Structure formats: structure tokens, C-alpha cells
Amino acid sequence: MPDLFSPLTSGALTLPNRILMAPLTRCRADADHVPMDLMAEYYAQRASAGLIIAEATMVMEGNSAFWMEPGIYSEAQIAGWKKTTSAVHAAGGRIFLQLWHGGRACHPLLNGGKQPVAPSPIAIVGDEVHTPEGKKNYVIPRELSDEEIPGIVEGFAKAAANAKAAGFDGVEVHGANGYLIDEFLRDGANKRTGPYGGPIENRARLLLEILEKVSAVWGSNRVGLRISPLNSYNSMMDSDPVGLTRWLTARLNNYNLAYLHVMRADFFQQQTGDVLSVARKNYKGILIANMGYTPEEATRAISQNDVDAVAFGTPFLANPDLPARIAAGTPLNEPNPATFYSSGPVGYTDYPAMA
Questions:
Q1: Closest Cα partner for 292 from 353, 231, 225, 341?
Q2: SS3 of the chain
Q3: At what angle do helices 149-165 and 205-218 cross, to 10 degrees?
Q4: What pLDDT, in 10s, does the model give residues 79-137?
Q5: Where along the chain do its domains lie?
Q6: Which residues contact 137 (CB under 8 A, 6 or more apart)?
Q7: Tens digits of per-residue pLDDT, 303-344?
Q8: Strand partners, 128
Q9: What pLDDT does 258 receive?
Q10: Distance between CA atoms of 225 and 353, rounded to whole angstroms?
Q11: Catalytically annotated residues
């Protein structure tokens, strides 16, 4: 039976192990959202992952939700990312870029006063966003018109082409965690009518149009997708997350994607349900699971054919040599949450590897 260290063919890539690095926002780009040299060091340290999925990256200017997150819409950003992909490849690794639009999670103070956009004018509540002026409440977004949506789709297509120019091995479309694509998918955030609202086949239209365009750039076997049908982060809910998962995973069989990446639970325990087994039953491609796995549980899930691989988040953040540590059975470094979104090398590139 396969285990964490069995090779895996995922689309066009052969991964040497099934211990993937989940996308982790770290806010180490510069003020123009250009990736810094320190980011190249950080990712190269973690090149032993079967696949690195790099952090959420802005596909279009003026849609910042984290202040210092990277982008992939300018020549300077492409050049900055080339340093990271070159460093990862020199260390023997493989790396995808996560393509992302923040939607209603963006804030005017991060975007020159620009109001964020969303499927419906519903604000995120119960949380605050970090801005240059301190923590602020989220604002009510502007509802996108149907006529504006093709421009969003083209923004993802251009970002996909830029990611190829930057030397990535593929891309992951970010359809999770309450950002723009997820906002369209789930009926708690999408109250619109027309071709992009109402039944799930309409709410999924934006995602499917983006997958078509991005696949035309890369070939679908170098395109992944991340979804989080249960996660209530960013005020997200759906009236039928299991039904959403069932419909979407069956529909995705029309594409020859590199993988489907499913966040199996809810950070805040607001919604429950078994979306992972539904995805496994309906989706015929490579299935990656994420969220709170120990190495032991991940090994069981793979050996039982529940999933094909597991993406680890904070364990990879604090353990640059995570596969080696798991193989050796040695203790893991503990991550320091105070440095997750800070600047500089502390809590970023200074976590020690095994002696």
C-alpha cells in the first residue's frame, strides 16, 4: 500500500513523496508586492516537499487583503518570483503558485481607497483586517456587475501566463477560505441573480471559466484547485456544503486537473460534515487533503486510499526539513504564531533543520 514516501504522479509531475507544503500567507513581499530575496531562501529550505504550493498571490493590482502579500501582475513581480523558482529547482524541488483574488477580504486602506468587490454587497463580520493604520473592520464590498466578470477571468489568465514566465511548475487556483471565487461558490456570500447567482451551476460559473482560461495557458495537468466547502473563515457559510462538494467534484471530472486540494473541516467549528469522502467518491483524479493532519493520520489516510496526498501547513512553516523529520520520527519544531505575518527572517528562515 502507498504511504507518505511513495512517489505520486500528479498531472504532469511525478512527486517523490506525498508530503506537500500547503500555501501559507507570510507577508514578506515588499510594499509593491514584489517577492523578496528572503522568500527564495524560505521556499528553497522546504524543497524536499513532494510539491510546494506557494502562498496566495494577487492576480490583479488593487486587490490586496494582507498588506505585504506578493503579486504576479507586474514585470518586477515576475522577476522576483524567478529567484524563488530558481532556488527551489536548484534544491531539487517542485513549486506551484497559488492564484488568488481577495474579493471582499480586501480593504480600501490597502488599495488606494478602492472599494473591494464581491458577488454581493455583504461584508465580513466578526474579524478585522491589518492595515497601515492598524486593525480595521471590513467594509461592505461593491457588487460586481455581470459585465465586469470577464475582466476578472482574464486577470487570472494573465496571472497564469506570468507564473509560467516566472518559472513555476504549475498553478493552483484559490477557490477557498472566503476569497472571491469561494464567495461566488457559497450561497452565504452569493445572493445575486442572473448567470452567476442562484443554483450551484451558476454560482460555480466563475470558477469554471477561470479553470478553462488557466488550463488553456498551462494545460490542465499543471493546474490544481483548492476548495474549503466547510470553512467559516471570513464569514463564510453554505446551506448545503456536502451537496456543493458532491456537485462540484463530479463537475471537475470534465477537466484533467493535476489535483483537487480539499480543506476537510472548519477552523471555527461552525459547520460540520464529511466533505472529504464525498470528494473521494465523486472525483476521479488526484485528491489532496489538508487541515490538522498528523503524520500518523496522514499515513493512514493514504494507505487506506482515502486520499492520495496530504498538504501540511504550520508543520512545514516551522520544520523546513519536514519529510526527513517524519521519516526519522524525530520531534517537530513548534511554530511561533507571533511571527506568522511579521517581517524579516525571524520565525521565517531561522527554524532549524535536524542536526
A1: 231
A2: CCCCCCCEEECCEEECCCEEECCCCCCCCCCCCCCCHHHHHHHHHCCCCCCEEEEEEECCCCCCCCCCCCECCCHHHHHHHHHHHHHHHHCCCCEEEEEECCHHHCCHHHCCCCCCEECCCCCCCCCEEEECCEEEECCCCEECCHHHHHHHHHHHHHHHHHHHHCCCCEEEEEECCCCHHHHHHCCCCCCCCCCCCCCHHHHCHHHHHHHHHHHHHHCHHHEEEEECCCCCCCCCCCCCHHHHHHHHHHHHHHCCCCEEEEECCCCCCCCCCCHHHHHHHHCCCCEEEECCCCHHHHHHHHHCCCCCEEEECHHHHHCCCHHHHHHHCCCCCCCCHHHCCCCCCCCCCCCCCCC
A3: 30
A4: 999 999 999 999 999 999 999 999 999 999 999 999 999 999 999 999 999 999 999 99
A5: 8-339
A6: 123, 128, 129
A7: 999 999 999 999 999 999 999 999 999 999 999 999 999 999
A8: 137
A9: 98
A10: 30
A11: 179
Please count the CA atoms within 13 angstroms of the CA of 139 that sit on its side-chain side: 17
CA distance 283 to 281: 6
| Residue 198 CB contacts under 8 Å (≥ 6 apart), including other chains | 192
- Grid cell for residue 296: 500518523
Which pLDDT score is estimated for 355? Answer: 84
Answer whether CATH 3.40.1000.70 is correct for domain 8-339: no
| Cα 210 to Cα 251: distance, rounded to the nearest angstrom | 14
Burial 142-154 (b: 16+ CB within 10 A, else e): eebeeeebeebbe
Residue matched to cell numbers 448567470: 195
